[in-house]
Amino acid sequence: MQRLTWTAKISYGAGAFGKDLVYAIVATFFMFYLTDICKVSPVFVGNLFLAARLFDAVNDPVMGLVVDNTRTRWGRFRPWILLGTILNAIVLVFLFLNPGLSGSRQLTYIAVTYFLWGVTYTLMDIPYWSMIPALTDDEKERDTISVIPRIFASVAWMLVGYFGLPLVKAFGGGDQAAGFTRLSGVIAGIFCLCSLITFFFVKDRAGAAPERKNTTSLKEMVRILARNDQVIVVLILSLLFNLSFQLSNGFAVFYFKYAVGIPEMVSVYLLAAGIAQLGGLFGYPFFAAQAGRKTVFAVSALFPVAGFSVLLLGVFPSNASLLWGAVFLTGGIINFGIGLSLGILTVMLADVVDYGEFKLGTRNESILFSTQTFVVKLAGALSGFLTGAGLSLVGFVADAVQTPAAAAGIRGIMGGIPIVFSLAYLAVYWKFYRLDGAYLQTVKQACRDRRDAGES
Fold first, then answer.
1. By the 8 A CB rule, do 28 and 161 touch?
2. pTM tops 0.85
């Protein structure tokens, strides 16, 4: 069983910090940037998000196939992490660069840069997460290494959420478009530095997985996914979770500006979100050890339901101090559950890789993790589509006081829709997920025995 040094663990987490700074600014503010600053129709933005992720339905699994068949002196994963980071950092700046175009030329520029951003993000994101099962097969070590990058990622989301708009204002000197461009440049630089740390200090270990001598074909990839019933369950869970999570995070700026009427509260909400997610992530290994994964999973789903119910009702105190506290508490309740889910889903996907080896005799980390990456981006696209279509349906008007009906519709998007996804998330887990307890230990031991027999 492979033990990892803390240098390797922290260096791996650094990669998540950089890449999630990038993902957070896009997921949290890009729709707002397009609708409120560039004055683009919400419907166009929603359709763009959806089209880009439909493209990823082909792009992401193919990238997983490419990584799975990569053999270099630096391993399978690290070369792609480095290349993807450099390209994505460049595209990120152009994504938030407003060249002053209008009409169809503006829409074409936005569409092209957004598609390029998605493709280049895939280049580094899939190999990054695919490394986890190849780093160690020890269950406790895997629980730790799965949670550490999520902690770094939550810190990144918290920083972008709380400081994002103030930094845009400071960097732009009153010009929000320039502020977003300069902030994206700073984030791009940090992203490159963090990925270099991961590249130099984290290595996938040959002993953590059986070496494959043959490459994986497209037909084989389809067979692997089709025969691993538990990966399908985990992907459905990931989709439902990310729909709830990304919709609420990306829509928060609209909710507090137009439904609550105090746009500054979005920073309070997102600060609470970051702190609570860290609490959930740090607490996950302890809670899982004490109460078991099934209980922790139930808590991870029901806490958000309670918090989203408050946002759906939208009843907040008028007193400023009490309002601050109520928003902070609500964000904390929702995101403590989200933090637990981030930890448990990462571990579950690593276990699914073992299950695939148990059933098929081969480990295909990059293929399985590429489908999860696609699901995360698909959820972002669907949440963006729901946001754009929902804003249009409720009669939203950018930079204006909303009608009572529009304000109620905005509350429904922020609170009601995530409640439905959270409850479905819990129901699917209880009904279909099987990799827990004694059966999971049987799977892991069978994999170890098979490797030992192959080495003898």
1. yes
2. no
